[in-house]
Write a structure and sequence with these properties.
single chain; 343 residues; alpha/beta; 3-stranded antiparallel sheet
Amino acid sequence: MLIFLYGSDDFRARQKITDLREKFIKEVDPGASSLSALDASRATLDDLSSLYRSGSLFTKRRFVVLEKVLDNKNKDFIEDLTLFIEGEKKNENILVVYEPKFVEKKIAGKNLIMKPGADDKTVPLSKIEKKLFDVLSKGDFVQSFFPASGANLLKILAGIAKQHGATLSIPAAQLLIRLIGTDLWPLSRELAKLAAYAAAMSKDNAATISEADVRLLVSQSVTDSIFALTDALGNRQSASAIQLLEEQLNSGSNANYLLTMMLWQFKILASVRQGLDEGHSPKELAKALALHPYVLEKSINQVRKFSFPHLERAINKLVEADYKSKTGQGTLEELLPVVIASL
């Protein structure tokens, strides 16, 4: 069985892959023993064949995800993959092919499938790539994922908020987009926090994210500032870190939100540090921690400057600051600079 997903919106594509995987586990493989994922940019056809053609000791079918086909440098790989897929039409195992570099572009009134080229331009597919796309498009299930906009993006954001148990007002969604942009990865993170805040503030279990909530909790530059702050701490530049914190506070960022973001970042760094210390590869960490590639790459670069005990101490001090602020022992505006100076 062939499932073909394509397009640059990897948030919704990966959400779809997760849904398909969970459905397979529920209906076919409760022990999750027949799941595999393969990075096609470094794989061989033998790697795929050994996974997709093999059976399982525990289930009748296998579930295999193949990604980044166009990134494979072997000149024969795409042609061989096309022939392989054509010859596996009766295979009852499930093969999910996700290719983010297949993009649609309207030319002369027609939607053409192209791929990224130099200088952010799109270029036509080669003859071999076009053949692969045509074969994949005849799969049992095909779906494209391209960046959403307008009413469609608002609908998607409302759906994400609903997953977190909240209703998202249209003005709140529009403001969130203006502040964060249209990338669904950071938008989904902000919605999770906003939903938690709305639920905590609700008096009747009807959590609604308002425009005021977004204004209170979300700042366009806060994530980059937190990364810069932890970079400064890693370089033992406490004064610079305190200055970054004060800039955020002076710009109107909520202190509780900044604390939440700092805890979130240090917990990620601690998880990455622990994983690297245990010998795990970045690919294994990405899968285990479910982090966006941008966040993982930044975190790996930062974590080289910290030991695990140092990160643990930072988390404990931030938690202690939170406790003190809630028990009348100081405000976060007063406590956070002291914590940063001590790290």
